[in-house]
């Protein structure tokens, strides 16, 4: 799961006012570096294009495996130069790399940013190069020094602006990505809550509702028999009492599944402590959550911990487990681990993917490390500010 | 016996008052919020309290907190906590607030009037009464503690002790003689390293020991 958050879209990106801008000496230095990097850029560009053609005879794949990172290096260098000139960072939103060299190559090739890098090289070899060369010449030709004095900074800022336009995705694209991610997570959450509602409805219908109807029936019969057969009436009342107890027990289970009472009472730290008490495997706790968090986050994280601990109890065969949760005021980070046999998979089953989907609704991320043979460690991060304490206690 | 009753549901409060008074208790205060509960608990003539965990203003655990606070001011003040659900965490907090004279039961247990009144009497007499569901939850857990030294039978006896039963009650539940129960209990005390003291305190401490892990 990719981690993106609203922080990725900062107003600073569109109005580049913050940060220190480079002076004329520095930008001239950058211009000189641009000129020096002309040859490597040309060579890389040509090689990339040739290798792409050679992919059909396989050799190209090998070449690209080395060339694409080199291209990223060159583009990255120019990103940081453009960032310095403009006074705002130019982010590099590449797709995250995963796993082996072949998978990485595929990711890189499919990354729209790679195509932007290629386009940028075309610019850097032609007009971009011309602009930088002009800046250097204005400086070196001595007689043009006055022009250099006044012109070099706007000139290089112009080039940097174009570099930035090509080398990073714009605000609109970022918002589009964000909307896409939000649409996906909303769909999952809506789906999840619909399933939950159906489950609750079924639980109530099959359990307490039926039992309370039976209680009512027994009491009615008892009322009827009260004078004629007090012994039978008493038996019916006893039965009704037993049935109503069972109904209450079932209602408790339903409530616990919706929102555990101890979570409402004591917040995340208290509820996780209570969970740990009920575990067969000893649980070591390190909880640092000083304030109450927004209720939906508390609930999602509580059920995440509950799911992980339930997995530990069911599958891990562990002798020891641990839970650590820390809130630093902005991000809630947590970890559940055990020394069991490992082999947990985020893709298998429904428990962990469900938890990941629930956390994603809050821009949270979840990852699982569980090599066969153990240990299993599930970690998550949810950005969230603490809410004011719900209760005022003396 | 003069009882303080705290329960925010009017129907249940009325029902409990009726029940307690029918069984010979005197309900000196039947309150439905924290402020009034605190005031009622400060009344020195109150001899015991029956308290719901949740009540206004925040509907979280103020009843429990008030009960524990009252026991800090009046050590050994008998408190029976009734709750819609039972939490081991709360059972421990309650037990940690002094030795004995506490009870923690599910509200549904009230429907067995005789059991409930018996539980209240035992709490008032300084005993410990825990809901069978708490006891069962603790029993389910694997432990690596002095409690492991107990035999299966001794653990059954300890579980019934935790529910607040006297030797006679335990003997009845396990279908053995009272003498056999006493023997088991002595063996439990020995295995948990609880030296001779007054018998009642040892019982409470054995239960505490058992809950601790």
UniProtKB/TrEMBL annotation, chain A:
Annotated TM spans: 30-50, 56-75, 118-149
The molecule here is called histidine kinase
Instruction: List the keywords (alphabetical).
Output: ATP-binding, Kinase, Membrane, Nucleotide-binding, Phosphoprotein, Transferase, Transmembrane, Transmembrane helix, Two-component regulatory system
Assigned EC number: 2.7.13.3
Domain Putative sensor stretches: 41-153
Catalytic reaction(s) noted: ATP + protein L-histidine = ADP + protein N-phospho-L-histidine
Kindly give the Gene3D superfamilies that the UniProt entry links to this protein: 1.20.5.1930, Histidine kinase-like ATPase, C-terminal domain
Please report the stretch or stretches of sequence annotated as the Signal transduction histidine kinase subgroup 3 dimerisation and phosphoacceptor domain.
Answer: 196-263
Would you say which domain of life the source belongs to? Bacteria
What InterPro entries does the record point to?
HATPase_C_sf, Put_sensor_dom, Sensor_HK_TwoCompSys, Sig_transdc_His_kin_sub3_dim/P
From TrEMBL, chain B:
The alphabetical list of record keywords is: DNA-binding, Phosphoprotein, Transcription, Transcription regulation
Q: Does the keyword DNA-binding apply?
A: yes
Residues annotated as domain HTH luxR-type: 143-208
Q: Which Gene3D superfamilies match?
A: 3.40.50.2300
A Pfam family annotated for this chain is: Response_reg
Q: Which domain of life is it from?
A: Bacteria
Q: Is the keyword Transcription assigned to this protein? A: yes
Q: Which part of the chain is the Response regulatory domain?
A: 2-122
PTM sites of type 4-aspartylphosphate: 52
User: What name goes with this protein?
Assistant: Response regulator
Which species? Nocardioides humi
Q: What is the lineage of its organism?
A: Bacteria, Bacillati, Actinomycetota, Actinomycetes, Propionibacteriales
